[in-house]
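Weekly sync, protein design subgroup
Attendees: M.S., D.O., the rotation student, P.L. (late)

Item 1: inverse folding check
M.S. brought a backbone from last month's batch and wanted to see whether the design step gives back something sensible before we order anything. D.O. pointed out we never logged the input encoding, so this time it goes straight into the notes. Structure tokens as presented (776 positions):
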């Protein structure tokens, strides 16, 4: 064993560059694998810890307007499936009346409700994940605003409406198990009962959340049907625990999934590098291996000599990678911890990464074993004659006639001759290019306003939200009257939302949110079919189509006001809002059944959108008016910020890979072609010529790899990204790329980096001379 370790140590010293490059590949693979799993572990622990204390409801029905509390209590008593229930009273206050540091929250997308602490469940927690308590004159601010507006404990929030004004001191930053994420468009401020009663006399509108905890084996869908069938108050959105989990998974888990996807790419690249290095090293030592076989050393012992080297390397990389993943994972977990806390169990964030690294190590060691065994299969005669090497490498004869571009012709000829050897390097460069473009394209897609089409919303400049209230129709009519007269408005379309019943594949009745309006003004991209054009047509969201087991051309029966309505499914679109289960059809909802209106509009060319929004907010003060680009930023801003960091890390790592691979490849090639280089010098080729020939070989490979990597990023990358979002209702996604970056800047940077590396790495050729070959 001591002899084996001495051999390994000498081999490490002899091949420092190759060993270092391989070690870096393995360490980065381990860092990303364990880092992604650490983020996942922290997310699971944090969400479990938050939910354990906060006890979120499993079914919530929001409602605006009057209701019969006694009828609600009777309903709860009659249902065996209900474990507990409560009514949360939220005082909704217009954002323009909420002032922080002299500015209102009018530009904010969120709906803000002022609530008191609950007594049974659905508690609002402080930053220590304790049930928050506020006194009169104090306020608990959602963590979303603490992050976006940098609100801190001790700051002052002012509520002002006309002559009435009330100041609150921020005493707590609130974590909300149901409305934490930016993807949840409602936020809750915590105040005392006395302050809520006082505010209700001067401003705001009451909204009620009817919340339920359910017994085991009672699904939220069944609860929703029972609730609606009983005629309980329902002028608002219904939300289930599944939707809460979906929102959290997208908000906090997407980064972990992307990092692990990068890790898989790095592992593949590392395995390819490992395979190439093992084959190249053993090909150079064929004669020595043949001698060892000839004198009777068992093949198993020869294998150990090579296996122990890579086993030591893999284990060292695993340990370093696991330790380095601690700060790496913690950095990308800051948002999760800020919103959810540290969780109830710290063990999972250590165990998951450790399990991942152990599995990774076993996989790489196993691959080393297979590669080494495959290279030891040759006979003693073949090894000592070098026949296998000759057969695999081929030969290239120098051209005998004069050539105009001799360096180019020779370089291409050598590439053609040894294409098997270069094919592996091509694959590694392809993955390196893919590694740059995949996170970049993902980030550009999410950050693009056109991503709204995956949220069931057509691309427009401005959206107007008119939520249910006693003046719902008046607000809608006032908005339409303004838009029709305003010369700076180009086009607009009004949509109303309501609910109908249908049956899923299991025969259970479910309520579907249906939007009625002109779907051709601001069109979506449909997976199948098209938008509804006739009254008997309905378009379904992707998850809804799966749930109802329908495809384009099928018929679906829905129930509205006790009547069965039959629609032909004309199209299927993608939507990640409202649990991904929505529909579009020309259903003439009764006024009392309309949950909300949404108006989408475009301004005319040259009109400043922000100025127009400010004007509209003044004239249409009861409606929520949001520029679509601001809507995207406020909804997905935190995700985009983290994705940008991941993108930057991926670019740096990919370029580092390119440098290390190029150096490693040059060292192996120049060592194996030592005699050929010396002969070229002897017959008149200058050192510059030989360096150019090597550079052409590598740059041609790099160019081809960039081309293939770009195609894969725009095709396979879309499939990978859609797979990540499939549970949210996205089956297929079109990457929204930045052409200048993808097709010009990134390829140029990659080629430049490799070219500089080649210039530096080929300097060793100056030392090669024919006399050295003769002496050998």
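Designed sequence read out in the meeting:
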């Amino acid at each position: 064993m001591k002899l084996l370790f001495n051999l390994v140590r000498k081999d490490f010293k002899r091949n420092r560059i190759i060993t270092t490059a391989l070690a870096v590949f393995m360490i980065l693979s381990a860092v990303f694998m364990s880092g992604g799993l650490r983020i996942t572990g922290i997310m699971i622990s944090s969400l479990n810890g938050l939910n354990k204390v906060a006890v979120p409801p499993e079914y919530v029905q929001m409602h605006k307007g009057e209701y019969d509390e006694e009828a609600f209590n009777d309903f709860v008593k009659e249902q065996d499936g209900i474990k507990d229930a409560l009514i949360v009273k939220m005082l909704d206050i217009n954002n323009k009346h909420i002032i922080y540091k002299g500015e209102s929250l009018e530009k904010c997308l969120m709906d803000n409700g002022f609530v008191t602490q609950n007594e049974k469940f659905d508690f609002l927690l402080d930053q220590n994940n304790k049930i928050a308590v506020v006194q009169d004159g104090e306020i608990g601010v959602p963590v979303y605003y603490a992050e976006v507006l940098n609100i801190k404990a001790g700051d002052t929030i002012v509520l002002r409406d006309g002559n009435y004004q009330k100041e609150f001191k921020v005493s707590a930053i609130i974590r909300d198990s149901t409305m934490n994420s930016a993807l949840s468009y409602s936020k809750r401020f915590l105040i005392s009962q006395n302050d809520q009663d006082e505010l209700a006399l001067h401003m705001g509108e009451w909204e009620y959340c009817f919340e339920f905890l359910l017994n085991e084996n009672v699904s939220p869908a069944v609860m929703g049907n029972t609730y609606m069938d009983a005629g309980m108050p329902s002028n608002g959105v219904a939300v289930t625990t599944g939707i809460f989990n979906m929102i959290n998974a997208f908000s906090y888990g997407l980064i972990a999934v992307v990092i692990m996807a990068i890790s898989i790419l790095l592992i593949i690249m590392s395995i390819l590098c490992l395979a190439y290095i093992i084959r190249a090293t053993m090909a150079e030592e064929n004669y020595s291996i043949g001698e060892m076989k000839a004198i009777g050393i068992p093949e198993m012992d020869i294998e150990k000599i090579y296996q122990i080297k890579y086993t030591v390397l893999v284990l060292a990389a695993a340990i370093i990678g696991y330790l380095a993943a601690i700060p790496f994972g913690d950095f990308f977990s800051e948002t999760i911890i800020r919103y959810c806390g540290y969780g109830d169990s710290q063990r999972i964030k250590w165990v998951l990464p450790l399990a991942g690294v152990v599995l990774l190590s076993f996989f790489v060691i196993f691959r080393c074993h297979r590669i080494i065994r495959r290279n030891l299969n040759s006979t003693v005669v073949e090894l000592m004659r070098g026949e296998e090497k000759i057969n695999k490498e081929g030969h290239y004869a120098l051209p005998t006639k004069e050539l105009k571009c001799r360096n180019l012709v020779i370089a291409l000829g050598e590439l053609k001759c040894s294409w098997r050897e270069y094919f592996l390097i091509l694959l590694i460069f392809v993955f390196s290019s893919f590694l740059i473009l995949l996170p970049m394209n993902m980030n550009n897609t999410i950050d693009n306003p056109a991503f709204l089409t995956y949220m069931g919303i057509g691309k427009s400049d401005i959206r107007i939200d008119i939520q249910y209230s006693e003046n719902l129709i008046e607000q809608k009519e006032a908005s339409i009257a303004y838009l029709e007269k305003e010369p700076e408005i180009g086009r607009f379309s009004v949509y109303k939302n309501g609910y109908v019943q249908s049956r899923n594949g299991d025969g259970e009745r479910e309520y579907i949110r249906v939007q009625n309006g002109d779907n051709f003004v601001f069109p979506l991209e449909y997976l199948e079919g098209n938008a509804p054009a006739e009254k008997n047509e309905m378009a379904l969201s992707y998850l809804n189509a799966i749930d109802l087991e329908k495809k384009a051309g099928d018929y679906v029966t829905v129930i509205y006001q006790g009547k069965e309505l039959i629609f032909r499914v004309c199209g299927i679109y993608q939507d990640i809002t409202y649990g991904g289960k929505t529909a579009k059809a020309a259903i003439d909802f009764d006024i009392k059944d309309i949950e909300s209106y949404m108006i989408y509009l475009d301004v005319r060319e040259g009109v400043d959108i922000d100025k127009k929004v400010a004007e509209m907010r003044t004239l249409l003060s009861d409606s929520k008016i949001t520029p679509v680009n601001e809507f995207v930023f406020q909804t997905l801003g935190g995700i985009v910020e983290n994705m940008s960091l991941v993108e930057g890390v991926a670019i740096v790592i990919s370029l580092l890979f390119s440098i290390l691979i190029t150096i490693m490849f040059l060292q192996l090639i120049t060592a194996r072609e030592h005699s050929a280089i010396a002969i070229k010098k002897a017959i008149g080729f200058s050192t510059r010529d030989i360096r150019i020939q090597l550079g052409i070989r590598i740059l041609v490979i790099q160019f081809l790899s960039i081309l293939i990597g770009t195609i894969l990023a725009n095709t396979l990358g879309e499939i990978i990204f859609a797979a990540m979002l499939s549970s949210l209702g996205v089956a297929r996604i079109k990457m929204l790329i930045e052409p200048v970056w993808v097709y010009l800047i990134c390829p140029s940077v990659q080629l430049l980096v490799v070219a500089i590396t080649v210039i530096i790495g080929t300097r060793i050729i100056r030392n090669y001379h024919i006399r050295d070959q003769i002496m050998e």
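Discussion: The radius of gyration is 33 Å. The chain has four domains: 1-59+235-393, 66-219+226-234, 406-454+625-776, 470-621.
Action: P.L. to compare against the previous round before Friday.
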